[in-house]
Amino acid sequence: NGETVQQAYAVKDYIEYLDAHASEYSASAVSLVRAIADYGHYVQLFLSSVNGWTLGTDYAAMMEDPYTGSYTVSTVRSEAADNYRMTAETTGAFKAPGMSLVLDSETAIRIFLAHEDGSKLKDEDVTVTVTPATGVAWDAQTQLQKAQKGNRVMVEIKGVKAAWLAEKFTITATEYDTDNTQTNTVCALSYIDRLLGSEAYANNTAAQNAVCALYYYAMAAKAYNE
Questions:
Q1: What's the pLDDT at 115?
Q2: What would the pLDDT profile of 165-217 be if each residue is shown by its tens digit?
Q3: Of 131, 137, 140, 188, which one has the fewest beta carbons inside 10 Å?
Q4: Full strand arrangement of the beta sheet holding 98-103
């Protein structure tokens, strides 16, 4: 009748509702929602430290009291290394790839390709193909991005859903008119192995908690989908 209904709603509201009605839902659903809460809490703390946010001013705090008060970092690191470590097969002049993970409004995997000798690798000279895991309905035309980053070429897999965090993508890069090729097998959880094994983050509790929360969120999403 030309009228409008408006209601403010947050992920936090959903979490609190389901937690209060946990007996009405499956154990896997409850575990997933609690893992979302922990992920939101710890990743928000990490991103606020990186980006200079003031929680409560720039953004509302996700969850003041997470369900998981601490993580056993060594356990997560071992699981990530054994099951999700990135692998690379190289022919020619490519060096071992770099990696980062975007954890903002969407999750994206970034791979950085480079020459071993440090010479410039040009975006226009690199052909990239991506093969997703079976069952991942991923659109290369819109979700595969390639860009020049200094002497490196960045390949980005955008729009990684919760159900895909543990799913592996195969990225093949070929440099035009050379024998330089590299095939990388990687998933979002490969970043956990990278970060927890890095000396740069050895004393960064916020970063370690963030990737541990990401790991358990991914495991909960996997269990729920299965």
A1: 97
A2: 999 999 999 999 999 999 999 999 999 999 999 999 999 999 999 999 999 99
A3: 137
A4: 98-103, 107-113, 152-157, 144-149
Could you report the per-residue pLDDT of 113-167, keeping only the tens digit for each? 999 999 999 999 999 999 999 889 889 999 999 999 999 999 999 999 998 999 9
- Show Cβ contacts of residue 106 under 8 Å, excluding neighbours closer than 6 positions: 158, 159, 160
DSSP string, 133-149: PTT----HHHHEEEEEE
Distance from C-alpha of 130 to C-alpha of 155, rounded to nearest angstrom: 10
Cα torsion through 187, 96, 106, 61, rounded to 10: 100
Strands of the sheet containing 169-175, edge to edge, are: 87-91, 181-186, 169-175, 126-131
- 154 DSSP assignment: E
Q: Side chain identity at 50, as an amino acid letter?
A: V
What is the reported pTM?
0.90
- Angle, CA 167 vertex, CA 165 and CA 170 arms, to 5°: 120
If you write DSSP's letter for every residue of 92-122 in order, what string do you get? SSBPPPEEEEEESSSEEEEEEE-BTT-PPPP
